[in-house]
Amino acid sequence: MGYIMSRIKRLAVLTSGGDAPGMNACIRAIQLTASACNIEVIGFMHGFNGLLEQEYLMLHEQHVNNIIQRGGTILKSARCPALEQAGGPAKAATVLQQLNIDALIIIGGDGSFRGAMAISQHYHGQLMGVPGTIDNDVDGTDNTIGFATAIDTALDAIDKIRDTADAFERMFLIELMGRHSGYLSLAAGIAAGAEQIICPEFGPLSPDNLKHLIIPMQHAQLLSAKASYLIVVAENSYPGGTTALADDLTKASGIECRACILGHIQRGGSPVGADRILATKLGAYAVEQLLQGASLMMAGEINGQAGLYPLKKTGDRTKAIDPFLVRWQQQIGSF
Ligand code: F6P
Question: Which domains does the chain have, with CATH numbers?
Answer without folding.
Answer: 10-146+271-313 (3.40.50.450), 147-267 (3.40.50.460)
